């Protein structure tokens, strides 16, 4: 098969696909809306699981490079009660199956593994239409167009490729998170740093939680989860950093100061992220010449699987295209069949709403199953 693969979106899913195709000698181009690799901070740490994300990186022949990015000790886990008392604690003994890396460094590693020119930056897709016989015309925001022989939407939650396959649109899940960062935490925010420990910490309550992890160095990155309709958050002026911080912190009145310090001590303006999801079990009928991977296909409430699944989708699709070089439709059908099943199972996994004892059982079980 010599059909050139056109990938929309240079997130982790699109880049793993491009890399696996490259490993198999299949040409591909990735069109990315962002102007450059550094246009936006990629922020955040990701735990890359041995049952999906790492499987993808092995397929991409990048395990050695990946191991160099792993942040030692970050698989440690603590669960704290709102009063700061420790409910569960697990050290990182180096044998866990979920090593943590910085998302930006992982993306950079993937970019560096592709031939120069594979990613075309500053190419925002505005729409796509079927031309028949599996070909599609892709239109960019600047009005230019291209015709794709095989089109893959890896363009995330608000995919412009998805309407070719499905009328589904993401819906607000009734919860938002507020992101904060505390720099030089060991010296400047020692109580919060101690509460978070060497890896991740979650302080859950029935309807809200503070989750934080220790990124490279002693930066603390927190996700503060709050329930409520979008209107409730629209009423908070996130343009006024001090007022927004006070308003969010007030939601945790009575919580231990070392936990609320993850909000009030932020060195960056708090950022609101409303959470959206596609319907669980989202799928479509096979349409010639086009498919979706990652969030474009199965956006779910954050549950620690999304980036891992996007990478596995990319790897599996690349492998299927390599195995069916003269029959792209067979490749897309076999990829989609497995992806629909896997993403439906993952969609409803723990999304942070479980009672504390379920969380503890989940982490204790992870330890026992090693
Ligand atoms: C708060 C939060 C925390 C999370 N934490 C985790 C975690 O700990 N572990 C985990 O596994 N997952 C996590 N996720 C989920 C994870 O971020 C996503 O599932 C993952 O990034 C999906 O990868 P993707 O490649 O499909 O899409 P994306 O990462 O969204 O990449 C899509 C790319 O397409 C580009 N693009 C978008 N539109 C266009 C267009 N019109 N034209 C061209 N390019 C376009 C974008 O610029 C982007 O580069 C979290 C999500 C959230 C919101």
Automatic annotation (TrEMBL):
GO terms for molecular function: FAD binding; monooxygenase activity. It catalyses: a tetracycline + NADPH + O2 + H(+) = an 11a-hydroxytetracycline + NADP(+) + H2O. FAD binds at residues 47, 103, 295. One of its GO terms (biological process) is response to antibiotic. It comes from the Bacteria. Keywords: Cytoplasm, FAD, Flavoprotein, Monooxygenase, NADP, Nucleotide-binding, Oxidoreductase. This is Flavin-dependent monooxygenase. It comes from Streptomyces longispororuber.
